[in-house]
Amino acid sequence: MFARRRPCRRPSPDLRCRPSGRATFAAFAVAVTLLPSLAQAQCGGSFSGFVRGLKDEALAAGYGAATVNSFFNGAAQDPKVLKADRAQGVFQKPFVEFSRRLISNDRIQRGARKSQELNKVFHRIETTYGIDRGVLLAFWAFETDYGAFQGDFNTRNALLTLAHDCRRPDLFRPQVFSALELYARGGFDPARTTGAWAGEIGMVQMLPGDILENGVDADGDGKVSLKTSAPDALMSAAKMLSHLGWQPNQPWLQEVTIPADLDLEETGLLHRKSVADWQADGVRAKSGSFALRKGPAALILPQGHKGPAFIAYPNFDVYFEWNQSFTYVLTAAYFATRLEGASVYDAGRPDAGLSGGEMKQLQKKLQARGHDVGKVDGILGAKTRLAVQKEQARLGLPADAWPTPALLKRL
Questions:
Q1: What does the pLDDT average to over 166-172?
Q2: Is residue 381 part of a domain?
């Protein structure tokens, strides 16, 4: 299971939900939009006082006292949630190591079996949303090992703990109210609903707000059951990806080879050119032809010009709405291509990278030179990559955005 690192694209993903009955979530959304005191993501202080404030907001939004009191009854901070939130060291691993850790022959074989077992469901998804089954199988595998490990954290308490914590209250505070709305609709048990430490629920790990907006009863039993129904979980995930901007029946990632004289400053997610232009520069599909000729594409070198190389098509960007870790996103997108029949990537012989401690040193040095690298966390994210690329170009090093000990020494 991997926690979402994405922010909400809207103030809350539930603004379009209009539940039945007197207490509407839309009313709460309007209140948050109009009242500055509610719109601000308050956090910290006494946990009991924080919960009282949430209860007052829920009552002001129109929820009944009995519903509010029942939902928050027994609410408690979970220190294990905070510990998990602070210990995401797995994202510090480079792509080759990370992907080899997550992708195994067993997972590929089980993915093939799941594809056959749920062929009708995947065919319906492909017809309705134009999303290849490999994309969903990869998420399903990485998030919960095809539903086997969905997490045992109390979801309400996890959301309250993270909303109270002042690191990302803007993400988790709205999810508390989404969970309350699910409870009001009969689709959430505050005492018994469990999931990942970051509040995601079910086989593909969706936040309560995403369930409200995109939950689908695919098996026709009258309920959206993301924990026990694979059809519901997969169809809901497909609907969410579609709403996030997935272009139907379009590719997302493809392995390529690059020439020795490629202008490396043009690589990376922030630089886009047409596939025809990349071809003119000597970039070639590793096998077959390019999956898409028109439209912008980025050339990704996750471990520099001596390592693997991929062309990222527009659908690749949608992955970052699911998770903001570059390493996770690239691994999930690559695994999806493997499940669709692609060959194992050529790892090449990339230069040695940096340890987590060295990466933090690098980020501090980059900050000292005026670069915005975000939080100094030892993770090679998009901002750090861009800063590295700029410094490499300034120093006359190969500007492939892969930080090495040589670069750290030069800085």
A1: 92
A2: yes
